[in-house]
Amino acid sequence: MKREKWTGKMGFILVSVGSAIGLGNIWLFSWRIGEYGGAAFLIPYLIFVFGIASVGLMEEWAFGRSQVKGAIGAFEKVFEEKKKGTGKIGAALGFIPVAAVFSIFIFYAIVIGWLLKYFVLSFTGAFNVINIPEYFGTFTGTANTIGWHAAAVIGTMVIVFFGVQRGIEKANKIMMPILFVILLILVIRSVTLTGAMDGIKYIFVPEWSKLAEVKTWIMALGQAFFTLSLGGATMLVYGSYARDDTDIPSASIQAVLFNFMASMLAALAIIPAVFAFGLDPAAGPGLLFVSIPTVFAKMPGGYIFGILFFLSVVFAGFSSSVSMLEPAVEGFMDKTGFSRGKTVLLLSIVAFLVGLPLDIDMAKFGTWADITTIYVLPFGALVSAVVFFWVFGADKARAEINKNSNIRFGKWFEPYGKYIFVFVAFIVVILNIAYGG
Ligand code: PFF
Ligand code: NA
Predict the structure, then answer these.
(1) CA of 373 relative to ligand 2 center, distance in Å
(2) Which sequence ranges are marked TM in the entry (predicted)?
(3) Is the CB of residue 313 below 6 angstroms from any atom belonging to ligand 1?
(4) Would the N or C end of the chain have less CB density within 10 A of its end CB?
């Protein structure tokens, strides 16, 4: 069967931006920017995103495009070409990043399930009725989440089922523009609330002393990798569907900018509103499922804004979850020759069943989420960087990234990728182990 491609450069950037923009932008970034020095946090964040993570993005895309395969097949080819008979080792290594994002998909679908539930709650006007802080605790960790979890898996499954162009690209073409429009509307609402100023200060007033703390830099570095979906499978498989005339360096600049814009918009949509109502700009689930619904219960027009908000987060979630399922689907199809339909069905059932115990046990859920995002995903990013820059070779890596690009990286890029990027990717793994994210 002929391999599918994105319709063009636009589609490629859009799906990649869709993968990049997710819960990381919404529930991690807005909290971290406040917690780690406001505008001062942007310094390490932007250094790491532009100087380091963007190289990882180009590496994964170019790796996939050069081999026209996802991680398993690409690593296998590169190993086999280097030394006959070692292909199996490559395939085994390629399995790591694919398993990493698939494991993330397993719990991410559960979170999308919660979001779907909250989207429906916003519709029924329930935020004015239920006890919001109590509700989240009584809903999550119970069998009541299972149906919503199933809906999230099915939604992802349907998109991936329709394939690269008619599924993933089409869905992103619908969801991403709506996501940005909604975020803009929410920002306007949020910053015009009385008392919004404290939230704006929380985001923008730089607390320079935070730059002296190691933790600030660690958080910025981890955020830079996660936010661009670096892990050696997602961007790699998306790159494998890119046409040869795609300008990878310029696409990377655009994807990074859109992703950053989404993070800033999300922060401005959330934090000022949370402050305006004297709530806690907590991290993670507490922000999305407690502080924010409380805001919408109190805000003028909160009914409509609540619906819009949860719709936009659901879109951010699905555009990422499809990018977590696709690498496993591509790998499985490539290895077994199964049809896309059968593969998607099989892997979705597996993801759902493995996720079931996490539905009803929040401690297990937390452990799973931590292990996959903090330890396994960064390891996948490191493995792919080593295979690309060292096994495939830094000279060929540079040529592939430069291919058909207006931006041409000079010879310096080779040691930069081979030593500096690989070293930093290694440091990310070590720091995450040491600091637990
Ligand atoms: N970039 C996504 C976010 O910020 O939420 C998360 C993500 C998606 C990570 C896909 C890894 C991945 F492969
Ligand atoms: Na997304």
Answers:
(1) 16
(2) 12-30, 36-57, 92-116, 146-164, 176-197, 217-241, 253-279, 299-322, 343-360, 372-395, 416-437
(3) no
(4) N
